[in-house]
């Protein structure tokens, strides 16, 4: 397949970060506001540590204020909720992200519920879920919003297209469905109990894979010319002994031979998530300060 059919998420994310940086410069110059993002990490999960480090670096690189709170793995839920209350009350903090997963003794939902919905740059609070579902101005979860941006960039108006989402998680599948319905697609949400999953996928003009099953979606499940967005990030053993490699939920080579456009793994959806988080922080800061939102 021509390389032009590969959607370069890394380049897209760089471009988005540059637009975020421009918006931050304007906010500072015209309104004296520096958007601030607080990221909270509990424990020492290695993947989470990498994410949090990258978030901090990219936040600063865009000209925003980055606040990192690293708490020990035995932090109590009460202590975490106390920190969130302090961040909610802090005028220099416009976005709050609590890195998931949390240690087992902390109830994730209680933590999500505690974040001020106006500062909920993850878009996980039920207020934002409800706003998104009803078409109101919400904070929108970063990964699905990044997918929508790439789809609209590639396809323009999505009206009337058949979209199939494989996976029904609160973080990706469900908000992706709301966004695609908002963009006038005909949306099907498929999952582990769906009958004839290959047949359902074959209907899709837009196929979003978010199941967390390595290379589950095969080339012959894809309608020729469809746009395929692979949200999966799965670590599997590599050909070289002892090494691991990253693959998506889609069998890339097979799918790329059929699809009109496809996101690779790595380098597709992954890089977009943090870039959208930065964008959400700018939007949150504008809303909190009563400043007209830039289009980014
Ligand atoms: N862990 C992995 N991805 C994410 C994310 O987008 N937000 C939060 N809060 N935790 C995560």
Write the layout of secondary structure elements.
Blueprint: H1 9-31, E1 36-42, H2 46-61, E2 65-71, H3 77-89, E3 95-98, H4 108-114, H5 126-134, H6 142-155, E4 162-166, H7 173-182, E5 186-190, H8 197-202, E6 206-209, E7 227-230, E8 234-237, E9 244-247, H9 252-256, E10 261-262, H10 270-289
Parallel strand pairs: 1-2, 1-3, 4-5, 4-6, 6-7, 7-10
Antiparallel strand pairs: 8-9
Helix pairs in contact: 1-10, 6-7, 6-10
The protein binds guanine (GUN).
Guanine binds at residues 97-100, 122, 142, 273.
Describe the structure.
- The protein is an alpha/beta fold and 296 residues long.
- The protein folds into two domains: 32-118, 3-Layer(aba) Sandwich (Rossmann fold), CATH 3.40.50; 142-271, Rossmann fold (3-Layer(aba) Sandwich).
- Helices cover 42% and strands 16% of the residues.
- It contains ten helices and ten strands.
- It has helices at 9-31, 46-61, 77-89, 108-114, 126-134, 142-155, 173-182, 197-202, 252-256, 270-289; strands at residues 36-42, 65-71, 95-98, 162-166, 186-190, 206-209, 227-230, 234-237, 244-247, 261-262.
- The strands form three sheets. A five-stranded parallel sheet has the order 5-4-6-7-10. Strands 2-1-3 form a three-stranded parallel sheet, sandwiched between helices. Strands 8-9 form a two-stranded antiparallel ribbon.
- Strand 4 (162-166), helix 7 (173-182) and strand 5 form a beta-alpha-beta unit.
- Helix 1 runs parallel beside helix 10, helix 6 (142-155) runs parallel beside helix 7 (173-182) and helix 6 packs across helix 10.
- The longest helix is centred in the first third of the chain and has 23 residues, at 9-31.
- The chain starts with 8 loop residues before the first helix and ends in a 7-residue tail after the last helix.
- It binds guanine.
- Residues 97-100, 122, 142, 273 line the site of guanine.
